[in-house]
Amino acid sequence: MSRILIVEDEAIIRSALKRLLERHDYEVSEAGSAEEAGKLELAGFDLIISDLRLPGEPGTQLIEAAAPAPVLIMTSYASMRSAVDSLKQGAVDYVAKPFDHAELLETVSRILHQQSMQRSPPPDVTDDGGGRQTMIGNCTAMQLVYSRIRKTAPADVTVLILGESGTGKELVARALHQQSKRAQASLICVNCAAIPETLIESELFGHEKGAFTGASAARTGLVEAADGGTLFLDEIGELPLDAQARLLRVLQEGEIRKIGSVETRHVDVRLIAATHRDLRALSKSGDFRLDLYYRLNVMQIELPPLREREDDVLEIADILLDKACQRHERPGLRLSRAARQELRDYPWPGNVRELENALERGVILAEGHLIHPDDLGLAPVAHRPGPTASPAPPPSSADASQPGGEEDDLSLEDYFQHFVLEHQDQMSETELAQKLGISRKNLWERRQRLGIPRKKTARRPQ
Ligand SMILES: Nc1ncnc2c1ncn2[C@@H]1O[C@H](COP(=O)(O)OP(=O)(O)OP(=O)(O)O)[C@@H](O)[C@H]1O
Fold first, then answer.
1. Which residue from 50, 167, 241, 330 lies 20 to 30 Å from 109 (Cα-Cα)?
2. Residues 270-280: tens digit of each pLDDT
3. Residue 76's beta-bridge partner residues?
4. How big is the CA angle at 203 (ends 200 and 204), to the nearest 5 degrees?
5. How many CA atoms lie within 13 A of 6 on its CB side?
6. Residue-wise pLDDT tens digits, 142-170
7. Which of 378, 407, 442 is the last residue of a domain?
8. Do 188 and 294 have their domain in common?
9. Does the keyword Coiled coil apply (predicted)?
10. Beta carbon of 301 within 6 Å of any ligand 1 atom
11. Do 179 and 132 sit in the same domain of this protein?
C-alpha cells in the first residue's frame, strides 16, 4: 500500500483529501506545516502532496528534505507562476486548487507508477566475513524490492520483510543496514526459530547473575549489543509471547530490562524483522501480539518466491554457477539445455537457497563439462513439493516405493514428517529434535522445507 503525506494548513481541505485518498486504498498521514512535516521520516513516504503556501516555510521547502520521495505541489489558479517555479525547484508536478477529484487521483497514480518503475540498481551486500555480493534478479517484483530498499534504508524506521524461506530476507536486511546511517555500527542477526524457547529471552535481553538456575554470571543480551546499530530478527513469528512483550517495550520506550533486574537501560536500536508467516493471522489465534504487529509493520518489503520471478531463475543460476565452479575449482562447467529447462520448470519451494544447493550438487557431480538434470538432484515431477508457505501433502507409501534414485530420501522425509506430526503435541521442539537425532535448527529448517507447520504453543497471559 503506498504511503502519502498531505501537508496542508486548512483542516477542511486536508481531511477531504485524506478521505478521498483513503477511499482509494492509500495510507495517508497529515501535517499542517512544512515544519511539522519535517519532524516525520519524509523519505519513507511514497509521495508528499503539499500546499505551496503554508504558515512558515513554503511547501517547496520539503522537496530537498524529502528526496528521493517526490513532492506534488498544490497551488491556486492565481499563483500559476509559482507553480512553474516549484517545478524548477524539483517538484514532481503541481495541481491547481480547487482540483477535480478524478484528475488528482490520476496524477497521484501516475506519479506513484513512474516512481515504482524507476530502475533501482540491485544493492551490494557485504556478509559477516567481509565478502561482497550483489542481489541478483531484474524482474519487476525485484525492481520494486530494490526501490523499497533504496527509499527505506535511510529512513530510520522499523521494517518488516515478508517472504518464503530462502527468498533473500537476510540479504535485504543487510542491504538496509548497510545503506542506513547506522552502517558503521553493528548489525546483529538473530534467527528466533533457531534458539530454544527457554533461552530466547535471556539471549535477546540478557540476564543478571542468579536470575535463574545456571545463570552463574550476568550477561548482556543481543538487543543491547545492537545499541546504536540494527537488530535483525529473522522468523519473528516464532518469538514466544513473553519475549514479544519485552520487545514491544524496546520499540515503545526504547528501554530494556535484563531478566532478574529491576533497572531499565535506554537502547537506540533500529529493528528489522522478517517472517514467512502471516502475523495478522497469528495474532488472531493469540500467537502473536497485535500491538507488536502494528509496531513492526511501519514499512513492509515483500520478497517474491523464485517460481514467480520470470527469467530471474536462469540469470541467478548462471551467476551462482560461476561462483560454485570457482569454489570447487571446476572452471568452464555449463548447464545442459535439459538442465536449464529443468531449472525453469521446477517450483523451487526452497527458493534461491535451494537453487544454490542444486547448483553446488551439479558442480560436484558433473562428469564432463556439462551439468545434466540428474546432477542437480531435483525431485522428480511426481514428488515435487509445493511452496513452503502451505503444508505439502505427505507422499503416499506408493510414491515412496516407486523406482528412481529418490526412494531413500523420500521415505526418510516421510518418516520425519509422520514423526513430527504424531509427537509435536506432546513434545517440545528440543525433545523432538533430540528424538530425531538432529539439532533444533535442523528441525526448524526441515519443517520449512517440508512445509510442516509448527504446533500451536499454549496461550500465555500477555
Ligand atoms: N536475489 C538474490 N541474489 C543472490 N543471492 C540470493 C538472492 N536471494 C537469496 N540469495 C541467496 O540465497 C540464500 C538464502 O538467502 P537468505 O538467507 O537471505 O534467505 P531468507 O529469506 O532469509 O531465508 P530464511 O527465511 O530461511 O532464513 C543465501 O545464500 C543468499 O545469499
1. 167
2. 999 999 999 99
3. 97
4. 85
5. 22
6. 888 998 898 889 888 999 999 998 999 99
7. 378
8. yes
9. no
10. no
11. yes
